[in-house]
Structure formats: structure tokens, C-alpha cells
Amino acid sequence: EISRLKEQILRPLSVFDEHSAYANDEDVNPNFIKPRMFMFRLQKIMDEYAGGVSTSFTTSKENLEKGLELLAMLKEDAANLGASDLHELMRCWENVHRMYQAEAHVRTILFREETRWPGYYFRADFPKLDNDNWLCFVNCKMDPATGEWEMIKRPIYQIVD
Fold first, then answer.
1. CA contacts within 13 A on the Cβ side of 126
2. What is the DSSP string of the chain?
3. Is there a cis peptide before residue 127, judged by omega within 30 degrees of 0?
4. In whole angstroms, what separates CA 38 from the centre of its chain?
5. What is the structure's pLDDT at 154?
6. Given the DSSP bridges, would you call strands 136-142 and 149-155 parallel, antiparallel or unpaired?
């Protein structure tokens, strides 16, 4: 088990070593993606489809579903992360964790059919605040074995008036 985990953790270094001679620019290689480029792709998906800053925190069901589709493709590309050194190896795994956090965020916004504004996001397809149904916390958890997500509504307990 330890050997398997070690191999998995160090895989980005092996991918880079195996394919780095393919192109004369290590940042542009069809056989792997460097963590910096992966991060840019993740940020672009979140900005354009999950209500990011350039869209004034506005999103919709269609945008969120497209974001999930693109995150699924990015998840496939995560298997081809390449790291040229230990710093980039750390960045690879940081990006994988960010990718899962981004998916949790998108799924949570998709589940919560309302606008949580000001300060969070605006759902163009549900433009009103709905405290009757959504004055709650929304949590989610992913089953690592199946990849299935569970969405959970949790009550808010007012401890201060």
C-alpha cells in the first residue's frame, strides 16, 4: 500500500521525466500539463461558469452544468499533471485539491436554487433570495470510491439575537 501511494504521489515527476524531451518548451507539451497551466484552466472555468468576478458573480443552471462538464475534462487531465521539481509536485497536488473544492462549490451552488446576494453569487435563473427554503447551510460530500456526491441541507441555529 505504501509503495502504491508513493508511486501515485510522485507520478507527476515521472510523467514529466518521461515526456519532457518531446518538445523544446516544457510548458507546451501534449503529453502533460504543468501545474501553472492547470491552475489557469481551473480559474477560467470557475470564473466563467461558477459566477466568477468577470461575470459579476452571476451564474445559472446551464452555466453550472457546463462548468461541471469542463471540470470533468479537467479531472481527466489531472492524471497527466507533470512536475519538473518538488515545488511543482506540491503545486500539482494543490491543484488537484483545488479542483475537487471547485467541484464541491459548483455542486453546492447548483443544489441551492436561489440567489445568495449580496456577497456570494447571483443565480440568473433564481434571482430572489429564498429564506423560506434556503436559510440553511448546504454541505456536500463525495464518496471517494464511487465519485458520487451527496448534498445535505443543515439547519442554522441562531445563538445570538
1. 21
2. -HHHHHHHHHHHHHHHHHHGGGSSSTTS-TT-B-HHHHHHHHHHHHHHHTT-GGGTTEE-HHHHHHHHHHHHHHHHHHTTB--SSHHHHHHHHHHHHHHHHHHHHHHHHHHS-S-BTTTTBEETTB-S--HHHH-EEEEEEE-TTT--EEEEEEE------
3. no
4. 11
5. 96
6. antiparallel
Residue type, 127: P
Say what the alpha-carbon torsion angle 36, 42, 46, 52 is, to the nearest 10 degrees: 10
Q: At 29, list the grid cell.
A: 507539451
- Say what the pTM is: 0.90
Q: What is the pLDDT of residues 7-37, one digit of tens each?
A: 999 999 999 999 999 988 888 899 999 999 9
